[in-house]
TrEMBL record:
A GO term, aspect molecular function: anti-sigma factor antagonist activity
Lineage top rank: taxon: Bacteria
Membrane-spanning intervals of the chain: none
CDD domains recorded: STAS_anti-anti-sigma_factors (cd07043)
Name under which the protein is recorded: Anti-anti-sigma factor
Amino acid sequence: MDMGIEAKVDAGVLSIRISGRFDFGVHNEFREATKLADSGVKLIEVDLNGTDYLDSSALGMLLVLRDKMAGDKSAIRIKNSRTEVKKILEIANFDKLFTLS
């Protein structure tokens, strides 16, 4: 299984897929991926299907994304979270800040 971050922009949607551990180790990769949001992106989808762990630095990185989209809850969709990951997001009240699907 490959680790890390894949990102692409298609028709105004920035898709970010995170595989393995979502923690400070992928901070630089994640920052590079978020730079793609500067080019007229209307929606960011974060696919956590391959994510088996996330920590507080990952939560911080997601909050940076939210700032990029001017705090618009509907502009960021976090999808395909595994149960354990979704639980962490819900404990952090991220279901109030983002669209979790």
